[in-house]
Write a structure and sequence with these properties.
Number of strands: 4
Strand order of the largest sheet: 2-3-1-4
Radius of gyration: 14 Å
Strand content: 35-45%
Oligomer: single chain
Helix content: 25-40%
């Protein structure tokens, strides 16, 4: 069963630009992981400092391995220095998928 991780986190608006290369690094590394189908961050254009998260994983084992990866440990350390807060992520189990 595939999983979707979706949600948001916040950083002070003035920290978005200096955080951007770190978000790019973790995104590029994560996209190389086994079982990662989609991994993206996007800044909300109407709410400065709000970053939207969207991920799709093949299964729970792949998501678990992702959280144990070296690049995620590094990301967790780096992001704290940029004032990341109000992290709200949810995991959704996908029973079926269809095109619109």
């Amino acid at each position: 069963m595939s999983l979707i991780v979706a949600g948001t986190f916040r950083v002070p608006p003035e920290n978005v630009e200096p955080l951007r290369p770190h978000m790019r690094d973790v995104t590029e590394a994560t996209r190389q992981e086994d079982g990662c189908i989609v991994y993206s961050y996007g800044e909300d254009m109407g709410d400065p400092g709000l970053i939207r998260v969207f991920e799709v994983w093949r299964d729970q084992a792949c998501l678990d391995a992702h959280f144990k990866s070296a690049h995620m440990a590094h990301w967790q350390t780096v992001r704290a220095g940029f004032g990341l807060h109000d992290r709200q992520l949810k995991v959704y189990e996908i029973a079926a998928e269809r095109a619109l």
